Amino acid sequence: MDTSTSQDGLKRGLKNRHIQLIALGGAIGTGLFLGSAGVLKAAGPSMILGYAIGGFIAFLIMRQLGEMVAQEPVAGTFSHFAYKYWGDFAGFLSGWNYWVLYVLVSMAELTAVGKYVEFWRPDIPTWVSALVFFVAINAVNLANVKLFGEMEFWFAIIKVVAVIAMIVFGGYLLVSGHGGPQASISNLWNDGGFFPHGFSGLFMMLAVIMFSFGGLELIGITAAEADDPRKSIPKAVNQVIYRILIFYIGALTVLLSLYPWSKVAAGGSPFVMIFSQIGEGLTANVLNIVVLTAALSVYNSGVYANSRMLYGLAEQGNAPRALLKVNRRGVPVAAILLSALATFACVIINYVIPARALDVLMALVVAALVINWALISLTHIKFRKAMDAKGEHIVFRSFWFPLSNWICLAFMVMILGILLFTPGLDVSVYLVPVWLLAMWLGYRYKIRATRH
Fold this sequence. Notes:
Elements: H1 16-27, H2 30-33, H3 36-43, H4 47-71, H5 77-85, H6 88-120, H7 126-143, H8 145-176, H9 187-190, H10 198-203, H11 206-210, H12 218-221, H13 229-258, H14 261-266, H15 270-275, H16 280-316, H17 333-352, H18 355-390, H19 403-420, H20 426-451
Helix pairs in contact: 1-8, 1-13, 4-13, 4-18, 4-19, 5-6, 5-16, 5-18, 6-7, 6-16, 6-17, 6-18, 6-20, 7-8, 7-16, 7-17, 8-13, 8-16, 16-17, 18-19, 18-20, 19-20
Protein name: Aromatic amino acid transporter AroP
Family: Belongs to the amino acid-polyamine-organocation (APC) superfamily. Amino acid transporter (AAT) (TC 2.A.3.1) family.
Membrane topology: Multi-pass membrane protein
């Protein structure tokens, strides 16, 4: 295959280092920096075990996706495989589900960016800074895929360096004794035990923990524009487990050893607590830069993922053919602009409608994520059966097929069960059948339109 242009017209401008850092960036986001505080309050130190469980399930799903992508590197991978190996509706559902998911996530991250800027300049309304970054990041994605790769590369480096700095500095405080008399690894079990609220405290937080790993599947979307996908995709997928161990398990273990967890929980984000050792002013500003970068990184990836998914849907006939329009630099302009329009509408909605609307939208994100992961595992079962029937050599095998698929699917059902019994989040479970019905009606309309 040509190294500069893929078979579907997209430019192969992503180097191996871009793929690696995009994969790494997907594992480090606002879920780690900000979401960990709520989990800590409910689960205590046992949250470390929770992130290990969640990370393991996410890794199994990434191996399943990685097997399919390495075998057939194409644009809009989730939708492509569901469409080819399962059926028309599965392809239609997985593609549009992923697109809507990232539109909603992009809306939330863009709104968060506005709030982070407000920290420095409260006189600037949230919508103004959100609009500025909206224009800037879409402009970058319209330029060429290599520029997107470079931008995400540096965004990811900032996040990675921040987490490594936290681990190293925290380790230094523990070993040197400069962390004070309260700094000890015994903090992991002394303050009410490793499970201060019992196993149920951790169990009820598994749903929140799992969504910290949403974004890892972005590896699959990069396949059509990777220089050597059969080499870079397996490498990126295999390194996910080490990244989870270092950036989640490592960081949280060090941080929770520095302070009694109950004091950390009362102070907000665990990451704020470790930075407070350096100095208050610097703490707030450094942390704000990191969370701002994390939000921009997710939005940047969202713009990329959405446009490529729309391109893939258009190739299959599940979206208008006009979305196949690619400029001379190999960028799917129409797909980027439509995704931008949808995301911009979400920002407006978030601006004019009270906070309750945001809760409902984020509940949709939760539902879309569970559907997304379940579709990957189910599609992989059908993909492997087709490969085995043809006697094809599998380039990059997933673990324990088909047992791992059923473990992942059972876990997704369990997550829906947890959400159902979590006040405020139960609406996301009720929205799943509504969303599936909407997708079915959309699919039937598409079938009727193609017949005429």
